[in-house]
Every structure is written in structure tokens, then in C-alpha cells.
Fold these 2 entries.
Entry 1:
Amino acid sequence: MSRYFKAEIQENRPVHTVHNLLTLNVPVSMPEPRPGQFFMIEANKGTDPLLKRAFSLFRKTGQGVQILYRVRGKGTAILKEMKKGTLLEVLGPLGTCYPLPPADAVPLVIAGGIGIASVFSFVEQFSRRAIVFYGARTKDDLLMLDELQGFAKEVRVSTDDGSAGTKGTAADSLRHFLSHHASPITHHCIYACGPHLLLKAVSEIAGAHKIPSYVSMEEHMACGIGACLGCVVKTRDGYARVCKEGPVFEAREIVW
Amino acid sequence: MVSMDLSVRIGSLELKNPVMTASGTFGYGEEYAEFLDLSRLGAVVVKGLSLLPKEGNPPPRIVETASGMLNAIGLQNIGIQRFIDEKIPFLRTYDTKVIVNFFGDSIEEYVAAAERLSSVEGIHGLEMNISCPNKQAGWCIFGTDPRVTTEVVGAVRKATKLPLIVKLSPNVTDISLMAKVAEDAGADALSVINTLTGMVIDIKTRRPKLANRTGGLSGPAIKPVAVRMVYEVFKAVKVPVIGMGGIMHGDDAIEFLLAGATAVAVGTANFVNPNATIDILDGIMAYMKDGKVEDINLLRGAAHAI
């Protein structure tokens, strides 16, 4: 049962007013997590909230698994208060990962808001090779930007209010890049995580430019292992489970 | 060490212990096989099947509530034929009883489904879900109108020799009446209870959170209602009752047995802890050991003695 275990909180520190970075000591028997996968993590003190919370893998380090999360509801508010040494029930790693791009392709990585948590380690995997389009509401919502700039080939920042980078969304930034870029677009492969509308826009842009693209979808989850059928999204083949067939899907498979 | 007899009978079906899975919360068994030994379970009850595959409801399909969750999956399933081709061979490799939950949109569909499932090796019992809308009648739920319940259970009874369990809806005024009706129509056992219809409204958007608007409430929040209904049904019928509704730990299961259940089914707890069924079985055994209870059947209905 190496995908169901108790993990000890090693660190749970704020990185921003509403964002925390959680580091968990995980057993050595846990399968190696890959970028794009997620964990179901206990975030309660009883039965309210009842279900575990799904969080993307942020990064695996020598110290354990790291989760970057936004405090949004009851569960994450409880999680934020949990101290070092607390034992949490964890299920994972779960779901599909971002497929590797062809050897000669430039990964174009789109992150919207907390979507950065899912793509961060994917970018890290390709030292100085990926171009990141990172969008947030304001400059204060840009997380881990310095670290990202340390290993990405380039980070193109955009904010809704124009307080950092260009004004607009990460999709606007991607669209502009593809329309003005000299190198053949066949050398690109797109990966995206963020709000539904952003992913839809990215999918449309990728389709228009005929670039392979992968998106990480989000839905409410109960079990995380494909049993409850609660987290489905509409695909060309009917409903697919985000926890099992996803969370990473080929963008063209999704019925937006 | 005191010897402990955990075996129970559901009609002609003998289970090695009283812990079952609740339909719709355990997939087709294989989803959980990585986390526990299915052979330790009294029975695996698989996700509800219909004759043809069913797509289910649009998302969002689930929403959390205080100590519970609402679901509106809409009975999505792969259909009976794919289940027979793809899932039963796997389940046959385990030493447990396999009970197939099924449903239809009409009495003819219920009958056809029961007949098809009855000829399959490796299926030991059937559980009828009568909580779905009756498209023939246009308005009622199969399990809420006594006349329709009599008709559909009676028709299925004639169509199968397998042990027949009827899963009762709690969304009725008098569940003991519905239990009696199902028993009289030929049920070998009753599952009590299915989910309670509920709704959650998003106060920001001022709209229901589920795409289907309403859903079925499950989890610890419904346990007292379920225990009460098992208690009432136990008094009303002679057939075994399978208790379910918010069982999270061994002590919860014991409550259901004391209320009159012969066996218990674990549902939403599987989502919280994929090993919940085994933890609950261990909890039952610990209770029996502490209380020097040698036969689990001695617990059944003990709360009625006072």
C-alpha cells in the first residue's frame, strides 16, 4: 500500500498572504511522483470537511514532497494551521503526468494563478529549455517567480491589472508570442494549468497553430482513484475521470 | 483466545463476515484492490449497472457538506455486457461474494437486467436499486410508490433465482411500510438506506452547486437517520437487513448491528480512507473481543431488548 500512507509535516510556511508551501516527509516505498500528478491529503480535524483535498505535486526534493497551496476554503484553512510534526494521511501520487515533449521541441508552459504549482517541477525538468507564460491577477499573486526564472529559458509575466509584466492573461501572452515568433512553431509543445477559461483559450490557440497541447484539468474530487465518478470532464469519448484518465489531458480531447 | 464467529447469512448467501461495500462507492472492486485484500470482505457490491451503458449527469457532480457529501453522478456505468466481459473475470479471482447492484428505467429493463446477470458465473447475489425515476410512470420513483414497488420487485423476483436484495430509498414517509412491501413482493433482504435527497446553494452565485441541482447525501451526517430506519425496518420484517449510511469506524457498524442489521455496507468512508472496510472489520472484531461476543449474530437487534 505504498500509495496510501501517513506523512509527517516537515514544514508548512506561508509564501504569501494566502499561499503556503507544505513539505511532507514521505515513505521511501512511495512511487516516484512525476510532474502533473497529484496527492489527496487529509485536511481536517474530524469529519468536517470529510474528504481529503487534492493538491498538485509542486516539487519533490531530498526533504520530501512539496505542495504549494492557496488557502481557499475550510480544508485549506485547517491545513494552514497544521504544525511541523503533524501526521497526515496521504494518497498518492495519483493521476497522469505531463508527457515529455519531443527532443527538439521547446516546451511552452502556461500557468494561471495557483496553476504554477502543477507545472513548476515540469519546467524544472528542462533546464533552460522551457518558455513559461505566467499569468496572475496582480504582481502580488506571482509565486516562486525568482526560482522559476532560475531554470526556465524565459518567463513571460502577465497580470490582469498590469501591475507586473504585460496587462492581460497568460493566453494573451502566448497568442502574442506565437504570432511574432520567428522559429517554426512545429518545434513547440504546449502545457497548461490554470482556470478553466484560460485552458480553453490555450486550447484554441494551440489548435489554431496546430501545436500539440496538454492541459491539467480540475474538478471536485472525492476518492481520487477513479471509483466515485465525481470528478468527470466531458471529452470526445464521453465523460472522463480527472483523477484517473487525467488530470493531464490532450487539450483537443476536451469538449470545452 | 476466544473463538469468534463472524459469518452471517443474507437469504441463501453466506458471508464470511458482515462487512460489505456500498454500491457506487467501490467502483467495480479493482480500483481498491491495490489498497486492501478484497478476499477479506464479506461481499463486494459493485457500482449500479443498467442494460446499456449510461453517461450520467454533467459536472459538477459532487459537493461537500458538513460531515458528508452530496452526489449527483447520475448512475454512470459501463453497462452489463462490459461488466461481464471486463470486470467479472477479475472479481472471480477473489474469495469473496460478489453482489451486483442494478437498475432500469422500466420494469422490463429491471427484468431483463436481472435475467442477464443471473446466468453469469461469479455473481452471487443481486441488489435492486429502486431509487431511480420510473420513466414508464413519468413521475414517480420506483421505491416510493408501494404499488410500483410491489410490481417491480415481484417481476424481478420471478426473473432470478439469485438472492435478491432490495435497496430502499429513505426519501419516504414510512420506510417500514416500504420494507414490508418489498419483503412481501419477494425480497430476500433489504439494504437500508440509500442516500437522502439534498441540495447545496452557492451564496455567491445564488445557484445550486450541483449541475443536477439536487443530489444524494451520504457520510456521517446521515448516520442517525440510517440507524433509526434500520431499527424500524428490523421490527417490520423478517428478512435480513443490511445497514448502511455514514459508517466510518467499527463502532458505527456495531450500532447498525444492534439496531437490527445482519450485515453492514461501507460507502463514503471508502473515499476518505481506501482501507476503511478492513479498518471497520478490525473494529468490529475488537468490539467482540472486548465484550467476549463469540457470535456476531448475537448482536443483531440487541438494542430492541430494552
Entry 2:
Amino acid sequence: MLNILNPTDSTSRYTTNIDGGSHWSVLVRRGVNLRLTDLEGGANVGMMFYNPVWLSERYNAPDTLKCQHTFKLTQGNCLYSDMGRIFCSIIEDSFGWHETMCGNAHAQHVSKKWGGRDYQSDRNAWQQNGYDSFLVELAKYGLDRTAMVANVNWFSEVSADDNGNLKLTRQSKAGDAVTLRFEMDTLVVLHTCPHPMNSEATYPKKPIRLEMFKGEPVTEQDECLNHCAENRRGFENNALYLLGA
Amino acid sequence: MIKHSDKKIENAAATATVAAGDYYLAEIKAGQTFRIVDLEGNQAADTLFYCADDPTERYSAMDTIREQGNLYLTAGTVLKTNANNSMLEIVADTCGRHDTVGGACATESNTVRYDLEKRCMHACRDSWMLAIQENEEYGLDKNDIAHNINFFMNVPVTKEGGLTFEDGISAPGKYVELKALVDVIVLISNCPQLNNPCNGYNPTPIEVVVWD
Ligand SMILES: [Zn+2]
């Protein structure tokens, strides 16, 4: 049997592991869930979201945060586009605080902390950075660096003190997982490179598991729908977008 | 950090008043200083910067936040580009804190934040869209309309990860002053927001002053 999600079979599931320091992109259809699991602890997954129909519609971190009055992302939150629509909802989260304001490490950060990126010596264990990873994936869809707005960093908690000073305060443990339910067709671009504020002694090359499976329909009791009045209006915008579909 | 400027208006190379709901688009040369004045108080100036030589390199909120390890902008903050290069430095600030987390108002986000029927109310992103349509010579398109600075806005983040919109800490005549480190294009939407109590539901003009 193919290891590919069969949307007509509710028990079907696509599973793959992605090494640390890697990047990938995949089109996730509406109604499909995507679960990320930190396999060893200390993973970071940088992620961006685009509308495959109009690639200029993309994840908007400010709109996502301010409409839900939150700085952290966790279960119950929805991820919004700049067009007032919901790409996906966080329906399960064992970690509790994912950040979306610190962006990606650039090559200069990685080489300063851990030494340069050397494919000839290190092969696929090279010390890749999140910024270049996104650039590579975006180019596949005709997008350039102007498409790279604030991304989510799953499994990385960054908090602020009263004066706004930021710290990477916590990272996930082995087995921590987050599940996203997609509310519209979405191009997902991701990398598994270290969080830009990670200061470990050696380059953290942390694998994740990625699963896709058919989601349950959104019910009137849904936690994300009922999280705040704003989310209900976001779902209404999606319903308008999907009119007739 | 409160830091006053010793620059005098009579020595300015250019001044402009930007009405509420209008945009300002101009090039500022490396070495020039650029001041935004909150004329009547509690106004938000939603601002984007681009490198004049290549506008695909532009102000990046996340690079700026990460490099200074702090969420708020004030005197001493160096604004970074999406290539993590230094772009402008805030050299004076009589307000003390400016926001770059909260983004700009848009007709689309207004439907979510306030009411589905608010979709036709004028918003900052509309001002930017008009600016790029009316000024093709800059070569900007919707992909360039990114995560901005809200000068004079106060959006505190709590230790617990909450986000609140507080009343402005600005007041009539408060200003922020930036020195351009490279040639930059500045694009401001003087916010027309009529839904947010922060400005007392009363959008007001700002003044822009440039010194050589
Ligand atoms: Zn606005």
C-alpha cells in the first residue's frame, strides 16, 4: 500500500520523518490535519502558509496575534492570512506556547555560533539555516524574499519581560506534538533549522515526525471556532471564500 | 528611552503634513534625518521602509526584534532589513516606545476584529495599496506590503504571553526621529482607524520633516 493519504479512507495516514536542518513544502488540502511531533526534544519547525490560488495571500502574524489578543500560539488559536481568512486551526497542542515574531536564523548567525555550512564535508548534516531554507522552497513557487513575512516557530517559547526584552525560555520535550486542521487549501513551507535565538553549544539537529490524516468536520462546539468572537468571524470569511465549493 | 533632538524646523530640507487616512511616500537619502510628529496626539503612523536600490530588501519587524532582543522600538534601536542589514537608526524619541508587533489595520482584518460589515471602512492597507498603484516608479506591489512599524502605538506583551492595546503614550507634539543609514523609500499610512479606542475614534494629521 502507498504511504500516501487516501482522503476517502478515514484511517489512512501519511507519515514521514524530517531530519533537523532540512526544508520541505507541501500542499495541504482543506479538511486535512497535519501533526508535528518533536521526536528527540529541542526541535524547532519554521513554517509559512500561502494560498496556492493567489500566492500573495499569506500568513499574517500581526493579524493572527491581535485578533486573538495573544502573543503566543497554542490550542484554540487560528492562523490567519492577510485577507482575513483562516489557513488552519490549532486543535491539539501539548507544548502550550509557539512563537511567531523572531523569524529565522541567517547564515551569519549559524556560522557565528556553530561554524559555517559545509556541504562537502558534512553532506546532509551541514549546518543549514532557516532563512536560506525558506528562500529555496519559495523559489519553487516563483516567490522571492518579499514573500517571507513573520513565520511560526513551532516548539519554541519566546517570552518578554516588562521592558520587552525577549528570551527563548523553553523548547519542547521528546513526544510533544501540535496538530493543525486546515480550513482552506494551503501551501505549507517549512524548515527544521534551529530557532534563531538558540544558543546551545553544538548545532541542534533535531528531527520531527510529520503526519497528515483526514480531519473531523468543524462542529458548532469546536474549541477554535468558539475561542473568541473574532475566530467565528474568521470562519465566516472562510465560508464566504468556499461558497459553492 | 526619551531622547530629544536639537534639530530646528527652520533648518529642514522639507516638511509635509499628512492628513489622517492619507499616505506619504518619498525617498530619504543616506545621512538624512527624518522626523514624524504626532501633531494632535494618539495617532498611529503605520510605516514601511524599503532599500531604494532594491526594494525587495525592506524593513523586517522580526529581524529588528530578534537582533535587539526586544519587542519595542525607541531611541537607539537600529531597524534591520529582511537580509538582516542595518537600515535606519532611531536617533531621537519623545514618546519612549513604538510598536512593531501589531501590524496595520486592513479592511479584511477589520471584518475579523470588529464586524463582518466593516469591510468597506478605510484602512491602512488600503492607503498603501493606493500608494503603490499611484507611484509605479517605485516598482512596489502587494508582495512588498509587509509587517510594519506603528509609530506612537503602545501594544504591550505580558509575561504570560498576552497582547494588549493600551491607550497611547503619545501626546500632541511628540515625535520620533530616524537617521537613514542607506537610501530608503519610506511609505507611511497615517492611520484612518475608526474602530479602535486608542485614538479616541479620532484620526488626526501627522507632520513629516526631513533634514540633510
Ligand atoms: Zn491603520
